[in-house]
Amino acid sequence: MNVSSTSLAPGRVRARARSGRRGRRSAVLLFALPALVLYTVFTIGPMASVFVVSTREWTSIISPSSFVGLANYKRMLADDVFWQACINTLIQLAAIIPVMLPLSFMLAYYLTRKPAGHQVLRVILFTPALISLAAKSMIFLAIFAPSGLFNAVLSAVGLADFELPWLADPHTALVTVIAVELWGGIGYTAVLFAARLGSIDPEVFEAAQLDGAGHLRQIWQIAYPIARDYFGVLTMLEFVGVLFSSAGTILLLTRGGPGYASTTLSYLVYSKAFLTFQIGYSQAVGVVLFVLGVLGIVVIRRAFRTES
Amino acid sequence: MARTKSRTRLSPVSHILAWAYGLLLVIPLYFLVISSFKDNTEIFSEPFALPRSWLPDNFVAAWETAVLGPGLLNSALITGGAELVSILVAVPAAFAIARSTGVLSALTERFFAAGLLIPAFAALVPTMLLAIAVGLFQTREFLVLFLAASVMPLSVLLLTQFMRTIPPELEESASMDGAGTGRILMSIYAPLTMPGIATVLILNFLTFWNEYLFTLSLLGPDVTLRTSQVALPGLVSQGYTEYGILLAGCLITMVPVYLVYILLQRHVEGALLQGAIKS
Amino acid sequence: MFKTITPRAKAVSVVAAALAVTFPMAACSSGPGGPTGGTSVGQTTELTVLTASNGSTTQDKVLATWVDGFTKKTGIKVTVTNIGEKLPQAYESSLAGGKEQDLLFTTLNGKSLTWLQNDAIVPVTDYLKEWGVADKIKPDALAEWTSADGTVPGFPVNGFFYPFWYNTDLLAKAGVTEVPKTFDAFEAMIGKLHAAGIPPMVAGGADWAGEKLFMQIIQSYMSADETKQVLNKGNYCSVPNAMKGIELFTRLRDEDLFVKNTAGYTAEQMNTAFYTGKAAMMQAGSWAFTDAPANLKIQIGGFPVPTDAAYSKPTSLQGYNSSGWWISPNGAKKLDAVKQFIQAFYTDESITAQIAEAGQGLAMQSSKPVEVTNPLLSFAVNSLPAEVEFAVYPDLFVPGEKETTLESALALVWAKDMNASQICGELEKVYQG
Prior knowledge:
Chain A is mainly alpha-helical. Chain A contains 13 helices and two strands. In chain A, a hairpin with an 8-residue loop joins β1 (56-57) and β2.
């Protein structure tokens, strides 16, 4: 039964294979060359430019820029908006990652057991990912509008006093954005998990069931250890996704407002570059995001490292 | 004791929860579909009622105003091109990283992972400069290469995970039969990691098809070049937007995506691995 | 953990890095670029146009027909691309690559306010007289487009009114027989509407619509110059008349002038609420006159200011910055063709088509008076100016880079727990950022 990438071949085969493999090891990496070249050509420039531009004063791509050293960073650290964005980003991460990943994993397990209607459910679950950002925002603007679906449901169940302008109230704007991200993310991540869980031999689960294990036990004590590496990669991807990609959703739903109530670091990078014409400052925030990203990835890798 | 089938009984609670969540996902889709048959007034005053008329006026208007015919064609060309390029280079790369060990392999994997940390539009200006420098500004070819490069981190990382699930015994028995590395990749790893490849193909399709910012900046607004995603926001004007038409346009551009998803989705569930081990 | 890297890997990474670095380094030239068609000066027969419209408005259709006629007459082929509100981004990207369109049709606000100083467009100051179009443009419009040093960045075309819309049917239902012309009558109207269970006014608190309403109300006690200065510098808290204006706003807000949760309404949602009779009033632009349902009884008017205000009549807003023709550096290479285009656009015939058929083009004036068919627009053009005094329209005075932050901050002012000094504090923060 395949559990990890360590070899369990008997002695003779191992020895012969190892020498053959060592000769092939460096040759094998050549297979990565085309991808590496393609990726590097388009990546080195941007990565370097984030750092370089963060030291410049630059208002738009067609205007000249000037070197200002660390001025953008000093301004950023003294800016209340930056710190609020930091807090909002942390709230986002804390609310999304621990909720989305376990729920998606369990949903993926459910799909993997192939219950009735699971084909239909798989298509439904991936729907949010298929809807473009523009359409999605329009939909949620209508759902959370003062006279929209959400308030209509609230008043239908007698909670009319709780009808709020969800996207325009400083107390609820960020939470509403997070709810939209969770809404789409759980199904999408579940499908990604199911792709991996699908390659686990069902006999493993059957054996566990015969031993009397309930489903929860099968999820967390059987499926999870098998897919642990993959779980780690998806955690990392989700972390990076939340950190870097919430700008689009926020732009279309609340534009970081009201005030700065729903401004995250990712949105701040966008708004400073495109809306307030401060590209240099925007990239300084980009550097902060980069650092946070590296820290997060390192922490997640450590947490999920398989003992080998 | 009777042998249980793999279709075991899950608790009723889990069925309810799963489908309740499914319902939450369907409601917004329902709103999208019915709104595409309404005008602004109907959309905002009766958002969840069925449309008064099912005439396809909005779809026709979207098609003509946003000139979606050429737009969809361009989207197809660019997405198809980028899919081809990206999968052709990512699969061998993942194979390489998964099958090799040592510092260089780990470094390569981390190098790809680092690409996840670039904020999307930080790449905008350097990429535009690059396009201008090589004389490929506002060409589809450049955009295809750029898009393929942009999904390298995700594709390689995910595919590596799937590649690592292949037991080494298979490779060893194939190499003892005299198969070269290339053949091993093509006849063993690629087929067995089909769920991973299908997943990556779907994810990348979404990324390429829905991509807006770089497509606008690198291709320009020219009607003969632009994709459907760039054409659609053209329906949003500064003073007043007909949301029914916009949503109808969104639906039109979503149809190919749904089709591709349904086609590839079967492969995502693949159970080929069990078969391979048994044989 | 890190052992020595093999020589082969070193070689590979050096080559890759060199490749990746040299490409951006060589990036300093922007190609001669130019849209399709010949580029030699004086021999061009093609022009490209980029508009911020969505291609489906009446004006777009009138323009398309006019362009066809222009091509038949002069042989100059014109390609019109409608890109919608992302025009600034699309234009600047194309400009960076030297491939921008020759002519733009877009507003004078936000990003475009920075184009003059960035040499993103070619000013038309001299062409106004040389090409004989100066007298086809209303003096007020030209004044709006002229910057402090006398430069004019583009040719004004569209203008608009931004009045208060009153639903007279709903007012009548509440026993209000005529549109209020004094502040006392206005407040009395609010009371009567409440008694009849009709929400008085819907404001688009979630986006730019709310900003325009807020700005109109708080100007009530300031002179035009004072207002322009405050809009530009952001010193709301330290100008007593500005504070008085903000307090006027909070007073009306706390009297429940606005519908419940007005903070969450976007401009389109506001329009819909008014059109479906969910509120008796809104403040909206003349571009919406043609969309208003025909069976709605609408009277347009102003905001009746208190007696001690700086204005003696109800205030309203108008502007001429909604769209105009801009010439790009590429367009400047085809000056001959551009000249023919602009001159043809400003003929009496073309101006009449714009005003009478499209209901637009209000910044232009033809030698003969033009008949406007839409009743609301006709009232706005002919009667409104006598009934109101026009206050300052914010767009031209709020610095371009503060615009979106200001809109966002203004989403906060609709909540009753924000008093005047908190509001002015939030506004001042916008200008410091």
